[in-house]
Every structure is written in structure tokens, then in C-alpha cells.
Specification:
With 346 residues, this protein is α/β, with parallel strands linked by helices. It has one domain: Vaccinia Virus protein VP39 (Rossmann fold). 42% of the residues lie in helices and 17% in strands. The chain has twelve helices and seven strands. The chain has a seven-stranded mixed sheet with strand order 3-2-1-4-5-7-6. The structure holds S-adenosylmethionine. The site of S-adenosylmethionine has 23 residues, from α2 and β2.
Length: 346
């Protein structure tokens, strides 16, 4: 049950927060692109964006990478693979590639956009060809939903005891699987720059408060007979925010023979919604904008997982908006980007 983001460009329209996160990595992407030495035999440079969605966040970063490659290797052909799930909103991504600021308009050798519409837990491109892999705010999505039979718990940090441990184990297995696939795909000398949602030292997940409010809404809708108790009992969003140690762990295991962790940091991502609220005090705008952002990534999974029809979806997000408006003063969604640079061990 892997679901992409909300379609028809909605994810991009509500990605102000992700844009802030993506830009934090511009220097790391530029440095990794500077280190690319095109393979003579293949005669081209290959970039991959894993979990690209509609492309707004990564577009400037892919462009930066190509500009840096062009500085040293002006005419080398570049292939850019855009990877996401089959049901992704590919039309919006291709619209963006036609715009004037697209990497397709850079001077120099030919640049070819390609799509790999499959899960990044599977092979995404042929073995041994990737010079630079990118991935932003995607790898916190697991390969399957969390454990079943957890009552009204909807988010990993609401799980207790054995079910929490099971979800942590699943997250570790998925992260290891992602890395194994990428180790197969990286070219000699190849690197990845990626980030995912992380949990800082304080141990408080970004989604802690928002998902607690969603849980309350679901319990209310359940009491009113608007939700199926079994569906709620069996659904936990397939998202896991990793600690820095959980990010490092596979590199101390067998994958460490194939991939080297060059750099890891946990960076707070300034939240544009609460920053604006602090400036203008407009609780209604905070709630509306935050829920637009939150809905763009959560709706497809909630709709399918909880078996919601259109009316129930509207009701859920409407109630969430009201609750956030009331809680505006103390509301926080403090994302931390767990950022890594990873290279192939040759
Ligand atoms: C929060 S969005 C991030 C999108 C974009 N990289 C950004 O920075 O805004 C997460 C993306 O990961 C994709 N995704 C989740 N699981 C995936 C998987 N197993 N394989 C490929 N893409 C996946 C989703 O479909 C979604 O487009």
C-alpha cells in the first residue's frame, strides 16, 4: 500500500516547507557534483532523484548539479532519472521541465530526462551507472504500513512497547534495503546526497503534535460512526523519523563494506508556517496553510488506509484545521532533516 503524494500539482503548491529543507543542501549537492568524473566508456553522466514527487524541490538542485558538471565537462551528455511511484503526478513534473528555468535549457551537451516509475526499495536504474544520487524528504516513507492492531495509534511515535519496536525494526530493514539497492546502482566514484525526516536529541518527532490531533479527530469520527474501527485499528502511517544513530546503523553492518558514510548531520528546518504566525498572529492562516501542506503528503495514505470516502476526507481535514487554529499559540511541527553524503567503496 504505497501511495504517492496528492496529485494535480497539489503537493508542489503546498511544498513551502520542503523548499526550505531542500535549499539547505545546495552546497553539498554542488560539492558532490564537482567530484564527478565522467566514465569514458559510458560517455555520459547519470543523476537520479529518488522519490522526486512533482519535482519542485529538487529542480534547482538538479540544475545546480548539472551546472557544476558543465564547468569541468562542458559537452558531456547528462541523463537525469526522476524516480517515484507509478501513480506519481508525472504530468506536473514534465510541465516543470518545460519551463524556462528548467535544467533542459542549460548550455552544453545534451541533457535527457528519464522516468523510473518504481519503488526505490527495488532496482531503479541499471547497475553501476549512477554518478550522483539525490533524495529529499522521501526515505522516511517505509515500504509498507506500520504494525496492525494498534487501536487508534496512527503515527509511529504513538506506538508503545512491542509494536514500537516492530516499526523501528521495519524502518531499519527498509533503510538497509534502500542502501543495498543504491550500492548496486552507484558507479565507481559515485555519491549520494540525501535527507530524510529525523528525530533530534530531544526525542520529539516533528509529527508528534499534528498526528496527536489527527488521532483525536479520528477517535471523534469513530464515536460518530464515520470511521471503521477495524480500519483504524490496522492502520499506522508508513512513515518513520530516524535518529542519527538509526541513520548510521547500517554502515556498521554489512552495507559498510560497499558504502561509506562521508557526512551526517541533523539540521533543524525553519518552519515557514509558525514563523509567519509569530509575525502576523493569524491563527486561521496558520491552520489553513499548515493543513494544505500536511494534506498534500498524508491524504492518499489516510484515504486508502482508513477507507475514507470524499466526505470523510473533507471532514477529517476540516476538523484538523479547526483544532490547529485553537492550538495555534503552542503549535509546532519542527522538522529536522537527517542529511547524509554517502559514497561507494571501490
Ligand atoms: C514528502 S515527498 C518528497 C518529494 C520531494 N523529494 C521533495 O523534496 O519535496 C516523498 C516522496 O517520496 C515518494 N516515495 C515514497 N515511497 C517511495 C518509494 N518506495 N519509492 C519511490 N518513491 C517513494 C512519494 O511518492 C513522494 O513523492
Amino acid at each position: 500500500m504505497l501511495r504517492p503524494m496528492e496529485g494535480d500539482g497539489a503537493y508542489d503548491r503546498h511544498s513551502a516547507y520542503q523548499m526550505v529543507g531542500g535549499h539547505l543542501h545546495a552546497d553539498l549537492v554542488a560539492a558532490a557534483a564537482d567530484a564527478i568524473v565522467p566514465d569514458n566508456g559510458r560517455g555520459s553522466v547519470v543523476l537520479v532523484d529518488y522519490g522526486c514527487a512533482q519535482g519542485r524541490v529538487s529542480a534547482p538542485l538538479v540544475r545546480t548539479a548539472i551546472e557544476r558538471v558543465r564547468q569541468e565537462h562542458g559537452d558531456v551528455p547528462v541523463q537525469v532519472y526522476h524516480n517515484d511511484l507509478l501513480a506519481n503526478d508525472w504530468a506536473t513534473l514534465f510541465e516543470r521541465l518545460r519551463r524556462e528555468d528548467s535544467y533542459l535549457h542549460l548550455a552544453g551537451g545534451p541533457v535527457t530526462p528519464l522516468v523510473s516509475a518504481t519503488s526505490f526499495y527495488e532496482p531503479v536504474v541499471p547497475r553501476g551507472i549512477v554518478d550522483l544520487g539525490l533524495s529529499f524528504a522521501a526515505i522516511q516513507w517505509l515500504s509498507s504500513p506500520g504494525p496492525r492492531g494498534c487501536g487508534s495509534a496512527l503515527y509511529f511515535d504513538q506506538l508503545k512497547g512491542e509494536s514500537r519496536t516492530r516499526m523501528a525494526d521495519q524502518a531499519h530493514a527498509d533503510w538497509t534495503r534502500f542502501l543495498r539497492r543504491r550500492a548496486d546502482e552507484l558507479a565507481p566514484g559515485g555519491r549520494m546526497v540525501l535527507d530524510m525526516m529525523g528525530v533530534p536529541e530531544s526525542g520529539v518527532a516533528a509529527g508528534h503534535q499534528a498526528w496527536q490531533l489527527v488521532r483525536e479527530v479520528c477517535e471523534e469520527m469513530l464515536a460518530e460512526g464515520q470511521l471503521d474501527a477495524n480500519r483504524l485499528d490496522d492502520y499506522v502511517l508508513p512513515v518513520y523519523e530516524r535518529t542519527a544513530d538509526e541513520g548510521r546503523r547500517p554502515f556498521g553492518e554489512s552495507i559498510g563494506d560497499r558504502l561509506h558514510l562521508d557526512h551526517l548531520e541533523m539540521k533543524p528546518v525553519p518552519d515557514p508556517f509558525t514563523q509567519r504566525y509569530q509575525a502576523d498572529g493569524d491563527a486561521s492562516a496558520l491552520a489553513t496553510e499548515f493543513v494544505g501542506f500536511f494534506r498534500a503528503f498524508s491524504e492518499p495514505s489516510l484515504r486508502e488506509g482508513l477507507g475514507l470516502d470524499d466526505a470523510a476526507v473533507e471532514s477529517l481535514y476540516h476538523r484538523l484545521t479547526s483544532r490547529i487554529e485553537v492550538a495555534a499559540k503552542g503549535f509546532a511541527f519542527d522538522v529536522h532533516a537527517l542529511t547524509m553524503v554517502i559514497s561507494r567503496v571501490d
